[in-house]
Amino acid sequence: MTFDNPIEGGTVLEDTIVQEGEPWSRSLAQGDVLRLVDLEGQQAVDFLCYSVDEPTDRYNAANTIKLNGNLYLGQDSVLWSVRARKLMTIIDDTCGLHDTIYGCCSIEVDNVRFGKNNGKGCQGNFETELAKHGLGPKDIVANVNFFMRVPVEESGALGIVPGLSKPGDHLSLRAEQDVLVVLSNCPECLNNAAGFKPTPIRVIVYSAQ
Predict the structure, then answer these.
(1) Which among 3, 69, 104, 189 could bridge 122 via Cys, Cβ 3.0 to 4.6 Å?
(2) How are beta strands 33-38 and 201-207 bridged, if at all?
(3) Model's pTM, two decimal places?
């Protein structure tokens, strides 16, 4: 599966497969592009990002919803920070309607919801990956869920339904400042977050230099 380089004159810095249930992270320079590819379809990718210069100025779900004027993210949506600064912009998206409200799974929450768990969760994945960058549980906030579908009814009821992404669907995010990006390729198999069968994703990083 090949893709056009979204940055004229840019180079590929990393092209890797993140297995189901595993985390990944990397720092990006301003202008770099991160592409996430849902290889088999309907695979949720839990995602957070932080300002490298000031990690407490991190992704903020409420500001992102307010300033985009929409619960869902798609083409041209911006991921906004606590201090209303642009962190990343979606510059290419073949799926749309990415979730901003459901947060991440965890062993503890799944034990309450289902009476059992997947042996790991995105909360634990975030904690493990953030520790590599000197951050910890206090730095984990409500995250984006790329490729995950969470409709909200008029009554306010919400639920997880089968994702819209098809094999090969992807989105690309441009860093609007130097950012740390952290993701968990969701291990959830007890609901439709990953189509009840988590699968690998592909992660490509393009340099703006």
Answers:
(1) 104
(2) antiparallel
(3) 0.96
